[in-house]
Design goal:
The complex is a heterodimer. Chain A has a domain at 53-138 and 146-526. Chain A has 10 helices and 42 strands. By secondary structure, chain B is mainly alpha-helical. Chain B is built from 10 helices and no strands. Classes of the chains: A mainly beta, B mainly alpha. The interface between A and B is large, with 48 and 55 residues.
Chain lengths: 711, 165
């Protein structure tokens, strides 16, 4: 009786179907070694009345952040407005000494052992951010004049890799390690080629294709390679997961195919390089490939391969020339960013390569410049009797190393500052602020040069947080900071969180030397940035807590950026897309007055007068839970010329039309049984929805199903 | 659908595993955390751990046991965190979940977490005392006495209406 009742009651406890769908995608992608979507669907945790606990929550986030920090940052010890010294012409033995000096005293395994889970998470997140940020979705504003859609990219003239591409005659898909080429003509689809891309050269190593480019008669696949030799060598299966980060590092390779005969792609070359895939861009026929390479093993003096990143061309490995290694500033961790340029017509002749100490998490590139950003944390210590977190006298600054922060006990944040003032002279106040370190490379049609480094306060959201216009870089960040006092030393010491600190947002303008020349700070306290887009002299960004302020910023004088307007409406946009002159499209979530999130929301903002931005049209999709377009711009199709907006949503694919007078109208709702990796594209008057195992064609008159092909 | 590349890694597809076990994990997580937000999180964490760690489960019983243990561990971490202890106001989300009031489920959720867990494993998952002891890494006698106390508390709470507890 009790048993039956309890069981009956449990029947009502069921997980959300969309969450399961989402989880299945994440699991499949993790399994395939591909990039994982960087955000989970917005948890309805918002509903919980946690505002009183915000401070406590912030503490948790900062603790989470430090693992990331441990893993990825420390490449630049301090925030600096001056250009950093660039050292070139080092020798391998210089580098050996340098790397040796950074090796941990203890075996890295011991250090990782304790918190491998979190560490692994941080790495995963990090890896996620990168491809996520590199991914930009739908058809470009100007480039979709033609009769087919293209991958949505951030910058005109700079292509970004994706899992589905089209050139108007063929659709190319990369699913489950397999490349498929499908000839399409209206509703007629024919698979002409299928290539297994999981092999790397002639080795046993497994590789997982991540993304691809199609340009003319060249098809380029970027893939992660896992070194099976290492993994089988002395490492038991059960230990594998401890070594996951190491295992993950591996090699990033490309595969360049000649597809002049679409039914018979010929492999021309597979240049690769050390490190895990961060992102890539294609400018003209030049591919820029960026990886993060971390040294986990001990360096061996006579074996440069143990401490210098390698390049793989024609099946041969070589270490990067010393001329191409740049020590930008006192490096603190054994990490390199490797940037190379490959001409896809001659894939076996690498144009250039550069490697810099440091790491990257977010990438912005236009045709001239590339910015690689990484997040770090800055601490300002104030010693002595004056215990005041706002003390001006800065005694020392440093980047916080992961370990010292890990030792920090977490505390209740509700101690009053008066309590700390009675603490005597052994007290130290430390203020932690998030910072973003930046590196600029000039691309020079493939002749990459390291050009500058710098740093701004706060963290980036994604690649759209950065932009360059008229030789000025513009960056929007969310700045988290908190202070604590430390009394005594070591195990007997106490750490007290001070009130204050919190989250604000900022915009910076920087010159070519990455020096800050203009700023707007302390915008939207306690909110964070959800989306950013720059168009010419105007920048837009959305922050969110309960309502969505859309800020319009005038950047015509880079030294004096000023906020023109702030439009407050419920909900927030995750993605902004300049739609046409005077219109800005926003894709995001709806929220009620309490900040609870319910459903997706499409907005069209009238920005013809930036000082008076208004929401011209909106449409709320209340039965929607999540969409990949929220965090991956490549998943959305925005075509102003056709008045078309399309994106995957839960297990559906939704298509909307927009017109000035009536706003958004849903014209298509396509259910797909195998609904992940969904991309949409159009060629002529046919709309194609691509999932992980099939492509379906729909007539754009009424979205009637025409045909489906398995891939 | 023939996919050679995936046969190297696991026989079961992600979807099959989710189909079979997501509800089980979710219900146990819910019984322990008493709210859907955390149950959602634990569900994700458990299956992501599963896919990352690939525990070698020779049969379904082992797989199920691994998932139950991981669910308990994940929720333990959460339940022990100060954040959870301070922020969770419970019953409001439960009303949302259980559209109508259910005395039995409420009574179980009102028990301390260790009692909820043994009750759930015993009455819902049908595990024997010895198996539960295995799963919880404790002694059968401990589990037995926990079950006994939990039943007594339930009898009081349910005021003898359902006497066969």
């Amino acid at each position: 009786m009790f048993r039956d009742k309890y069981r009956l009651d449990n029947e009502k406890i069921v997980p959300d179907r969309a969450l399961i769908k989402y989880l299945s995608v994440r699991m499949a992608q993790t399994e395939a070694g591909a990039a994982i979507p960087s955000e989970k669907p917005h948890s309805r945790r918002w509903l919980r009345p946690v505002f009183a606990m915000a401070a406590c929550f912030a503490l948790l986030i900062s603790v989470g952040g430090l693992y990331l920090n441990f893993n990825t940052s420390r490449d630049k010890p301090s925030i600096t407005d001056k250009i950093t010294e660039v050292k070139t012409g080092v020798t391998y033995s210089d580098l050996y000494e340098l790397i040796k000096s950074m090796e941990p005293k203890k075996d890295l395994r011991d250090i990782f052992g304790g918190f491998i889970n979190e560490n692994e998470k941080a790495t995963a997140n990090n890896a996620e951010i990168a491809p996520g940020s590199a991914k930009n979705g739908s058809a470009d504003l100007k480039s979709n004049q033609g009769d087919h859609s293209k991958t949505n990219t951030q910058v005109k003239g700079v292509d970004e890799a994706d899992i589905v591409k089209t050139d108007g005659k063929y659709i190319y898909t990369l699913t489950k390690g397999n490349l498929a080429i499908i000839r399409v003509q209206g509703s007629q689809m024919l698979k002409v080629a299928s290539v297994d891309c999981t092999k790397f050269a002639d080795t046993d190593n497994e590789s997982y294709p991540a993304e691809m480019y199609v340009i003319g008669d060249r098809l380029v696949i970027v893939k992660n390679v896992f070194d099976n030799a290492d993994s089988n060598n002395g490492i038991a299966k059960s230990e594998m997961y401890v070594y996951d980060t190491m295992y993950r590092t591996g090699v990033t390779s490309t595969a360049v195919y000649d597809i002049s005969d679409r039914s018979n792609p010929k492999l021309l070359g597979d240049p690769g390089q050390s490190g895990s895939y961060l992102s890539s861009r294609m400018v003209g026929k030049t591919l820029y490939l960026i990886t993060n390479y971390t040294i986990y093993e001990k360096a061996k003096k006579n074996d440069p391969e143990t401490y210098i990143p390698r390049l793989f061309d024609n099946g041969k490995a070589r270490t990067i020339d010393t001329d191409d290694i740049i020590i930008s500033i006192q490096p603190q961790q054994r990490q390199y960013v490797v940037v190379t340029a490959i001409n896809v017509d001659e894939p076996n002749e690498r144009i250039s390569s550069k490697t810099v100490f440091g790491c990257g998490s977010t990438l912005y590139a236009n045709t001239e410049n590339m910015l690689i950003a990484s997040s770090a944390q800055k601490s300002i210590k104030t010693d002595g009797t004056t215990v005041n977190k706002t003390t001006a006298g800065t005694v020392s600054e440093d980047n916080v190393g992961g370990q010292s922060k890990i030792a920090k006990p977490t505390n209740a944040p509700d101690y009053s500052s008066s309590e700390t003032t009675r603490i005597s002279d052994s007290t130290q106040t430390v203020t932690y602020t998030s910072v973003t370190n930046l590196m600029r490379f000039s691309l020079n049609d493939g002749q990459i040069e390291f050009a500058a480094s710098g740093s701004v306060p706060g963290n980036l959201l994604n690649q759209f947080s950065m932009d360059e216009y008229m030789d000025v870089f513009r960056i929007v960040t969310t700045v988290n900071s908190y202070s604590e006092t430390r009394k005594g030393n070591g195990a007997n010491g106490t750490v007290t969180m001070l009130p204050g600190g919190g989250t604000t947002n900022a915009l910076y303008t920087l010159n070519q030397r990455l020096e800050i020349i203009g700023r707007i700070e302390n915008v939207a306290k306690d909110e964070r940035v959800y989306s950013v887009r720059f168009t010419g002299d105007i920048g837009y960004f959305v922050t969110f807590r309960q309502v969505d302020p859309l800020f319009a910023v005038d950047l015509s004088d880079p030294a004096k950026p000023k906020i023109l307007s702030a439009l407050k409406i419920p909900g927030f946009s995750d993605y902004l897309h300049p739609y046409s002159d005077g219109l800005l499209f926003g894709f995001g979530h709806n929220a009620n007055e309490q900040g609870g999130i319910n459903g997706l929301k499409l907005s069209m903002f009238d920005v013809s007068d930036p000082t008076d931005v208004s929401e011209k049209h909106k449409l709320i999709i209340s039965d929607a839970y999540w969409s990949e377009a929220s965090y991956n711009h490549k998943a959305i199709v925005v075509s102003p010329t056709r008045g078309l907006i399309a994106f995957p949503c839960d297990s559906r694919y939704l298509i909307f039309e927009y017109s000035d007078d009536v706003g958004f109208i849903k014209v298509g709702e396509i259910y797909n049984d195998s609904g992940y990796n969904q991309r949409g594209l159009y060629i002529g008057n046919v709309f194609y929805v691509c999932s992980n195992d099939r492509i379906s064609a729909y007539s754009m008159d009424g979205y009637i199903h025409l045909a489906t092909i398995m891939i | 659908m023939t996919v050679n590349t995936e046969s190297l890694r696991t026989v079961d597809s992600v979807d099959e595993i989710l189909d079979r076990y997501s509800t089980m994990v979710y219900r146990l997580a819910f019984a322990r955390t008493k709210n859907r937000f955390d149950a959602d999180d634990i569900l994700q964490e458990v299956f992501m751990r599963y896919i990352r760690n690939k525990p070698c489960c020779c049969d379904e019983e082992h797989r199920k046991a691994w998932l139950i243990r991981t669910t308990i561990n994940c929720s333990k971490t959460l339940l022990n965190s100060a954040w959870f202890r301070k922020t969770t106001s419970l019953n409001d989300t439960l009303y949302f979940e259980m559209k109508e009031h259910s005395e039995v489920y409420y009574a179980v959720l009102s028990l301390p977490v260790k009692y909820r867990t043994v009750i759930h494993l015993y009455y819902y998952e049908d595990y024997a005392v010895a198996d539960i002891a295995d799963l919880l890494k404790s002694k059968p006698s401990t589990v037995k006495s926990q079950l006994h106390r939990a039943r007594n508390m339930l009898r009081v709470k349910l005021k003898g209406e359902i006497i066969d507890v």
